[in-house]
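SEQUENCE-TO-STRUCTURE ENTRY
===========================

Backbone structure tokens: a row of integers, each naming the local backbone shape at its residue.

Task: work out the structure tokens from the sequence, keeping to the layout shown below.
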Amino acid sequence: FYDKQYQHYGQYGPRVAVIITQSLHYWEESTSDQIEKLLAKFEDSDFTFGKTESESWLRDYLQFVDRNSSVIPSLSITNKSSFLSNLQDPFLKNAAFERYSLDIEFNGDTSAITSSRFFVQTKNIINSDREQDMMIKMREIADSMSIKTIVYHPSFISFDQYIIILPNTLQNLGIATAAMFVVALVLVPHPVCSLWVTLSIASICTGVVGYMTFWGVNFDNISMINIITCTGFSVDFSAHITYSFVSCEEKNRNSRAVSALYSLGMPILQGALSTILGLSFLSTAPSYILRTFFKTMFIVILLGALHGLIILPVVLTILGPKRDDRRNMDRLRADSKVNTSHPVYEADQYDSREPQRCGIRPYYSPRDMEVTIPLNDTKIYYLLATLPETTL
């Protein structure tokens, strides 16, 4: 609707109400001059047509009195009582001017005008930026007046979101990302990897906002909610890959990244494809909310899989944390229960074995050992300790 309105009727924007909220002596010439100057401020802006398209009950009332004072002898506005009585009858009783009865608010005994409103016609409001600038300019003019004045149009409720949508989105994304960082610190057993998970989330959210523009998604309250919701989806892929990388027993970072992809690469790919397939039915939905949800989620899942399967493994391979060799030796000793104090045992002789997968206990046979090393009692005990129980 709004796209068609901008296309065909963009020349005529909202008809903004200029409301005077204080009681004035409208019958005094100085007061009417102040009101004329007030309206002229709005009519001379770049967002309005001018005096010709404005609507003022006071102007029409004064012209009505000038035209008919010679015909109706009692039609006078020189004092308060005549001004108010002639305003109510015959002016507001006239069919041409009875619409103004909604623009004038009298007190209980109709002895004073407590508030009144006028209308100015805006122009060339063809996009959301123009709407936002027009509303801000109107409010600035109203605030600069000595008379208590406000401006209003029902569309201002929607226009206000253009002012607060960006700071609110950035604030909520910052809070959500910080919360994800704290959770990653607790669940991922390495602070550096927790930082990479958080940076991955920030990168995904930035990509979502950027690609939404190319896909024709407006930056409004609906898309803002979807973007914030996507923070939870974006952490899924990155956290699993990072945790698998940190938990891997390999010493080499490249081997750990390969092992993490070997363990979780296919599940992540299958999860991303199944999610996109399940959301694809929303692509043809008639509702704007559902279509926006589909587009946002599609971009999130796509960028999340890209970060989890390609970008994050490369980053961890280059900048990931190194495994502590002493901790590895302690874990190896606890698992194998080999008497390392035996003079024949040398740990370096067992480092040439094949890379092991994460969570899979290795199987060693005598032919995996160095041929030149004699098979003494300590080594036989080591081999038996590392065999699976089903083999024994």
Remarks:
- The longest helix spans residues 156-187.
- Residues 336-340, 342-376, 378-384 have pLDDT under 50 and may be disordered.
- The radius of gyration is 38 Å.
- The chain is about 60% helix and 5% strand.
